[in-house]
Write a structure and sequence with these properties.
This protein folds into 2 domains: 30 residues; 177 residues, no CATH class. It is built from 4 helices and 10 strands, in the order H-H-E-E-H-H-E-E-E-E-E-E-E-E. Strands 1, 2, 3, 4, 5 and 6 form a 6-stranded antiparallel β-sheet that branches. It has a 4-stranded antiparallel β-sheet with strand order 7-8-9-10. The longest helix is centred in the first third of the chain and has 28 residues. It is elongated.
Length: 210
């Protein structure tokens, strides 16, 4: 009798602990955005991109636009004349020419604030001499505690070669966030065009996909 009672008690405890584990797992799984939720997020994101580009076009340098579930941020900072020009070269330039030489640092990032959130950021420096881009750098930084993360970031001249004759460059950064235990994967894309003639940039694409 005691043995039977022990086995019954063990079975009940095992069932309760297993059920609690399932409930906890289900609760964690519910924190990952679904495909339909991602589609809704993308609609929000496109509206944020339009707003950010309008503010960039009006000369704003540090921009943060938000919706219920997303944040899109752009920051820039003027830098000193690129180190490729030494003091003697700089002194030999007249004021008008020197004013057309410069560098800016930039950073853009998208954060999903729904459920288990993640952030995809891309940053770098672009330099120009007159209407030509002399250099463009770009790197990505992905964060998200619940995900395995990887990224690829490229840059290219759209109308020539950066450092030679390109006036416009494109930075493309793609990120992947995987929650392997829950069979969930999200893909993010940020595309930025950089313009030497106007010393500016704009967001071409910002997207989250499953």
């Amino acid at each position: 009798m005691k043995k039977g009672l022990f086995l019954l008690t063990f079975a009940i405890l095992f069932f309760l602990s297993s059920n609690g584990g399932v409930s906890a797992a289900e609760n964690r799984a519910s924190q990952f955005p679904t495909k339909s939720e991602i589609e809704a997020l993308n609609q929000e994101l496109q509206e944020l991109v339009i707003e950010a580009n309008e503010r960039l076009a009006h000369g704003e340098k540090n921009i943060e636009v938000t919706s219920e579930n997303l944040k899109l941020v752009f920051n820039e900072e003027d830098l000193e004349v690129p180190s490729t020009l030494n003091k003697s070269q700089l002194n030999s330039l007249n004021a008008a020419a020197a004013s057309k030489i410069g560098s800016k640092s930039y950073q853009a990032y998208v954060t999903n604030t729904a459920g288990f959130n993640f952030t995809h950021a891309v940053s770098g420096v672009f330099s120009w001499n007159g209407d030509l881009l002399t250099a463009v750098s770009a790197s990505a930084d992905l964060t998200g505690l619940m995900y395995d993360k990887s990224s690829t970031t490229t840059k290219e001249g759209l109308d020539g070669t950066i450092g030679k004759n390109a006036k416009v460059a494109r930075v493309t950064s793609k990120g992947t966030f995987k929650a392997l235990k829950f069979f969930v994967t999200y893909h993010t894309t940020i595309v930025i065009d950089i313009y030497a003639p106007t010393e500016s940039y704009r967001i071409i694409d910002a997207r989250i996909n499953t």
